[in-house]
Design brief:
Largest sheet: 8 strands, antiparallel, barrel
Distance between the termini: 85 Å
Structural class: mainly beta
CATH topology: Porin
CATH class: Mainly Beta
Shape: elongated
Order of helices and strands: HEEEEEEEEHE
Number of domains: 1
Number of helices: 2
């Protein structure tokens, strides 16, 4: 009789514990990523901005007719500042965009030329680009993108000392550019339309041929090339 009574008491205790456990709330499922619940930033819309940074690259000036003389590639560097306008369209996390900018710049460099009797210089004073952008909107308001398109700028070729009234010329060039960047959208109520970015562009303005104005020698042609690497930061306001 004692054994039967003990069994009934033990069975009742097990049933009671099982019922109590069933009433407890389920433990939350673990999150697989720290940013899974972060609010998504909307990149769609037109925007205006400002940008500024630095540029470095190389130029070459070569007399293409005998006697052939060349400076070889020499360094150019300088700074730039300007404005930006564009439009983004976000589809899920893919961001399509078009962007244009116009920057004032002062990028220059020089090297010995003409049997080291002269100094040949290259300078660029402005740069405009028109580019497509393709990006991916990461959580936590980050956007990474690739970009490419056309570039338009000037190449100012000169040499000194000037002789015969010829000291160089300016040629406006249509080239190409490609690059990429990363952008961060601010999230506070007062700043949700603002974003900041860091961008790199490679720009090739090709080459132009110039006769006596660039060489100082009748019948001679000088070919000048210019390639630039641009690193700049920007601030955009999205409407």
């Amino acid at each position: 009789m004692k054994q039967i009574l003990a069994g009934l008491i033990l069975g009742g205790a097990l049933i009671t514990n099982s019922a109590s456990a069933a009433d407890l709330p389920a433990a939350p499922a673990p999150q697989w990523s720290w940013y899974q619940n972060v609010e998504t930033y909307d990149w769609t819309g037109p925007y205006l901005g400002i940008n500024g940074g630095g540029a470095f690259g190389r130029s070459d000036q070569t007399q293409v007719l005998p006697p052939v003389q060349s400076t070889g590639n020499f360094d150019i560097r300088g700074g730039l500042v300007g404005g930006t306008a564009g439009f983004n369209l976000q589809v899920d996390r893919t961001v399509f965009g078009l962007e244009g900018d116009l920057d004032w710049m002062h990028v220059s460099g020089a090297a010995a030329c003409r049997l080291a009797a002269f100094t040949c210089a290259t300078q660029s004073d402005y740069l405009a680009t028109g580019r497509a952008r393709l990006g991916y909107a990461f959580p936590a308001h980050w956007l990474g993108y690739a970009t490419g398109g056309v570039a338009f700028g000037d190449i100012n070729q000169s040499f000194s000392p000037v002789f015969g009234g010829n000291g160089g010329t300016i040629n406006n060039r249509l080239g190409w550019t490609v690059g990429g960047g990363v952008q961060f959208g601010l999230w506070n109520t007062w700043s949700s339309h603002w974003s900041v970015k860091l961008e790199y562009l490679y720009v090739d303005l090709g080459r132009f041929n110039c006769t006596i104005a660039c060489s100082g020698i009748p019948g001679q042609t000088t070919a000048t090339t210019l390639q630039e690497n641009i690193v700049r930061m920007g601030v955009d306001y999205r409407f």
